[in-house]
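Changelog-linked ticket: adenosine-5-diphosphoribose example.
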Amino acid sequence: MTDSLHRTYKVSIVGAGNVGSTLAQRVAEKNLADVVLFDIVTGRPQGIALDLMEAAGMEGHSRQLAGTNDYVDTADSDLIVITAGLPRKPGMTRDDLLKTNAQIVRDAALGAIAHSPNALIIVVTNPLDVMTYVAWQATQIPTHQVMGMAGILDSARFQTFIALELGISPQAVNAMVLGSHGDLMVPLPAYSTVSGIPITELMDPPTIDRLIERTCNGGAEIVGLLQTGGAYYAPASSVCLMVETILLNQPRILPVTAYLQGEYGLSDLFLGMPTRLGRAGIEKIYELTLTHSEKEALSLSAQKVRENIERVMAFL
Ligand code: APR
């Protein structure tokens, strides 16, 4: 896909692991942008990029894919996606990964932004809300240009479970999940709808509670099944939706991890919010009317993220 000057967009993905390589495939096969895959492991991003290029004729796209171990090759990117880090192992919480991934994300953000000072940054590495803060702190770029992918994935999982429960197509379901990406996420049943009808009109409270519990446990359920590493197909699809929304300037209201400046009574942290996402990045944060327990859950979520931000900033 190109802009009005017929320049092909460029997306650089730091971390050519499961999420990064699946995202590269989605972005190229949708013809959205040329892709540069960066990794610290020599040969891995080059091999994946070549493999994906060799599928181009059959998949019907004309995008270029390249792999590299040098940030110079990511120069002039429109978007930088950071997936570099260690994935969760069974029994490990996202927070166990805090310190290691903070160093990796800081280095990735600094390495990439040095060659693409105007790029938007999407962080995927966990623990997500804290890593997004780390990327922003390291680069000091405007807050609306840094964001994290979590809410779209959590909402997609809720969407799936609602659809399975009702025996309908997931495409008929819109779900909304806010808060931190982890056990303290905040699914919003009143804002989760089927053809505009809130699910609170379609299911009884125990059923909704069961689906919410499965959603909150969604990442761990897959880690438990796979045993090695975490989910990557739905995470890659979730980032790809953000890439498409931004590059094609098709603004959408999506739950995105965004910087808060007083919204919901919270400041100076990144948390999953209902946002207007567009070409400029986070163009607006919507303040929805929440129930008392949802407000409490959001504030608990924020408290946990803030504690981890303080831990990580003291360490870095
Ligand atoms: N710079 C660049 N790449 C790095 C660095 C670094 N400093 N450190 C690690 N990597 C690379 C690894 O070499 C690996 O190829 O990051 C990649 C991570 O890939 P996977 O281990 O396959 O992990 P993945 O499943 O893709 O998840 C990546 O996304 O959803 C989150 O929790 C998940 O934090 C994890 C991230």
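Closing comment: Example verified and attached. The chain has a mean pLDDT of 95. The CA atoms of residues 34 and 195 lie 36 Å apart.
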